[in-house]
Amino acid sequence: VGARWHRLRGRFVAPHEATLRRTIQAFDAELLDAVICAWIAQQAGSKPAGAQRSAIAVDGKVVRGAWRPDGSQVNLFSAISHDTAVVLVQREIAAKTNEIPELSTLLADLDLAGVVVSADALHTQRETARHLVSDRGAHYVLTVKGNQPSLLAVCQKMLSGPAGDFAPEHVTFDRGHGRTEQCTTRVAPVTGESAIAFPYAAQVFRVRRDVGGLDGQRTTKEIAHCITSLTPAQASPEDLAGYIRGHWGIENRLHWVRDFCFDEDRSQVRTGSGPHVMASLRKLAICALRLGGHTNIAAGLRW
């Protein structure tokens, strides 16, 4: 790569830190991201026949230590595979916009036919849902919160009542890390009588998480309401619970790793393309380890 050969030491000498910094700041960050993501996609390959429908999560992350000259922070928007937690595509959000209008641009180069796209409540927008299903042939699983009060009220009404009024709920129980967690998924189909003014809505569902101590005493309860274009024939309560679990898992399998294993939030690289490029290189390291079979990234780094 052009490193200088040291005749006395008999090896290549790495460039000075300032040289590396200037080079990184001058990179075309979007081009580098495209090359890295294409390599990752090639290495990841395709899912085996009979596996659950492919799913990706779209999520943003702020690099908290990197400030632009105008005082804004660097926000990186990514599309991430549910099953492998590798980043398929990533782009930097400009200072005077947000993630909502950037979603279609982010996913433009991905083949989304038949793929499930999951996103948090920020992206629960009618135009986003229409674009994914009508323009791209994908399906969506979106969280519904207070930013869509009318839609949230309808979902809550459709999912209220005794358990006997609904299809059998899917229940999972997890015990470990000093706590117990029970997740219960209840689903209601969107029929003619319960039509929702949301494009291509086929089912609404809620995931209730009861967390407690190892003694079995529940201490906290959290309920997430969601909406999807997948019909009951395309996705059972177990499938929908898996998509939500896959989306929530991105926080632990990627964002937490970037912050705690690579100390990303304290990185003060802020000039030119530096923050974006460094985040891309961290992403490359994480994905290479995951593709190599490492489930524990900290152990993989030591290896």
Textual characterization of the structure:
By secondary structure, this protein is an alpha+beta fold. Helices cover 34% and strands 28% of the residues. It has eight helices and eleven strands. It has helices at residues 17-26, 29-44, 99-106, 126-135, 149-158, 237-260, 274-291, 297-302; strands at residues 4-6, 11-13, 55-67, 73-81, 87-93, 116-119, 139-144, 170-176, 179-189, 203-212, 218-228. The strands form two sheets. Strands 5-4-3-6-7-11-10-9-8 form a nine-stranded mixed beta sheet, sandwiched between helices. The chain has a two-stranded antiparallel sheet with strand order 1-2. The two termini are 25 Å apart. Residues 47-51 have low confidence and may be disordered.
Short description:
This protein has 303 residues and is of the alpha+beta class. The protein is 34% helix and 28% strand.
How many whole angstroms does the radius of gyration measure?
22 Å
Strand content: 25-35%
Mean pLDDT reading: 86
Into which percent range does the helicity of residues fall? 25-40%
Please summarize the sheet with the most strands: 9 strands, mixed
Number of beta strands: 11
Distance linking N and C termini: 25 Å
